[in-house]
Amino acid sequence: MPRLSHILVAGVGNVLRSDDGVGVHAVRELQQSALSGVTCAEIGTAVLHGMHFLEKADRVLVIDAARGGKPPGTVYCFEVSNNTEVQRMCSIHSMGLLEAARFLMTGQPVPPITVIGVQPETLDYGMDLSKPVRTALPRVMALIRQTVSDWQQESLAGEPACLVSA
Hints:
Helix 1 links the parallel strand 1 and strand 2. By secondary structure, the protein is an alpha/beta fold. The protein is built from four helices and six strands; from the N terminus they run βαβαβββαβα. The longest helix has 27 residues, at 131-157. The protein is globular and about 40 Å long.
């Protein structure tokens, strides 16, 4: 009988640097109406402190600021890998998470990591999101919920999880 996979939704970024904190803002909002079978972790910039969450996960969804060359507030969705095509899209912190996992989880497979990123307008000091990123937050929340739901359905059906870029 298929089992429901353990999903980690990790908010990364620095809440003191405006749009860099979008991942933490999203996870805080998500924690107000938790998703069943999902661990929501506010990792911030302390990637190494989040490793214990990563070690227990079958799938990881990272929410972060990401640079892809589009206008501020653009929402991206992509898999983290060493694939050179994906490197054109850059999550500000997810590669650090992936590299830390590879280094610290020796002998243990690193779970697939998907990023929902938002193109920042500013990374200046400040605790508020810019208007374009704040406006994108409901789309981010909907994409988080849809992605988690899709993964849970695929897990129960025993099918491989696959997420189409948004």
